[in-house]
Amino acid sequence: MTLYQLQVFLAVVKTGSFTKAGELLHASQSGVSHTIADLEKELGVLLFTRNRNGVKLTETGNQILVHAREIDNQIEQIYHTVASTKGVQSGTLRIGAFPSYSNKVIPGIFQAFRNHYPGIELLLLEGSYAEIESWIKAGAVDLGFLPNPCEGLDMMVIVSDPLVAVLPATHPLSKQEVISIEQLDNEPFLLLKSGCESLVINAFQENKRILNTQFEVLENSTVISMVESGLGVTIVPSMILSVNSVNIVVKQLNPPIIREIGLAVRSKQNVTPIVRAFINETDSWLVKHVDGSTASF
């Protein structure tokens, strides 16, 4: 049994798919499938059941998962130790992030990082997708949180953020469990111009439906307030929603629209020990708190 086989096993568990696990690990679907098959052959047990809806852990696979995660945690500690010997003791790390991400997960990630690396100063710069991209390319920040893909930068996808439909509480569709793009055809629409609007526009175009845009809005809180006032419906990343929102209903989309968020750097070949330590800490925190994905440059 190899460490790579365990990494592939954990990636399949987290994504529920050989194909998605391959995307995380920058490997082919067939490569992931062969790796799992070799591991099952070596252990003499089935780890997953396969069907057209994906893969699911067997009872034995669930038992092995506990030990695999323990091994993964130990490997993480080894990386922490090695990072310390390479000088990850002091310095400054500059990080770019967009507001909805900063608000939801940055505090937890920063606290976890400081617990392990108290001598590193963290500087956060908030901006739009375009600003963060330009900061990374210019060297103004060491790395940044951005949606995937991002042309010209090396990216590690760390978490998926599904988009959701947001409607006034009195809307005729408010009682439905899920909403389709077809049902929003020609509805008064509030388009959030935060950088992921292309996902919404593409979804309407692919389904040959009319996106009846009434207003284009820049701020997350503004678009939700406008829905609360009954001015229209919207589709936004689930991450921007607040538990304090009233007079709205939030519905899952079918088929789903997913925004992938990753950590971007200018070049994965020139990642410093401090940056690598932050990437590892971010991934570890997300796995525990936001069902994030494990990957590395």
TrEMBL record:
One of its GO terms (cellular component) is cytosol. Signal peptide: none annotated. InterPro entries: HTH-type_LysR_regulators, LysR_HTH_N, LysR_subst-bd, WH-like_DNA-bd_sf, WH_DNA-bd_sf. CDD domains: PBP2_LTTR_substrate. One of its GO terms (molecular function) is DNA binding. Keywords: DNA-binding, Transcription, Transcription regulation. Belongs to the LysR transcriptional regulatory family. PANTHER family: HTH-TYPE TRANSCRIPTIONAL REGULATOR CZCR, HTH-TYPE TRANSCRIPTIONAL REGULATOR YBHD. This is HTH-type transcriptional activator CmpR. It comes from Pseudoneobacillus rhizosphaerae. The lineage of its organism: Bacteria, Bacillati, Bacillota, Bacilli, Bacillales. The gene is cmpR_1.
